[in-house]
Amino acid sequence: MTGRIAVIGLGPGSPEQVTPEAARLVAEGQEFFGYAPYLDRLNLRPDQVSNASDNREELDRASAALKRAAEGKNVCVVSGGDPGVFAMAAAVCEAIEAGPAEWRDIDLVVVPGVTAMLAVAARIGAPLGHDFCAISLSDNLKPWEVIEARLEAVARAGFVIALYNPISRARPWQLGKAFENLRRILPGTTPVILGRAAGRPDERMAVMRLAEADAARADMATCVIIGSPETRIIERGERGPLVYTPRFLVAEAVR
Amino acid sequence: MTGRIAVIGLGPGSPEQVTPEAARLVAEGQEFFGYAPYLDRLNLRPDQVSNASDNREELDRASAALKRAAEGKNVCVVSGGDPGVFAMAAAVCEAIEAGPAEWRDIDLVVVPGVTAMLAVAARIGAPLGHDFCAISLSDNLKPWEVIEARLEAVARAGFVIALYNPISRARPWQLGKAFENLRRILPGTTPVILGRAAGRPDERMAVMRLAEADAARADMATCVIIGSPETRIIERGERGPLVYTPRFLVAEAVR
Question: I want to staple B242 with a disulfide (CB 3.0 to 4.6 A). Which of A66, A76, B229, B234 is the partner?
Answer without folding.
Answer: B234
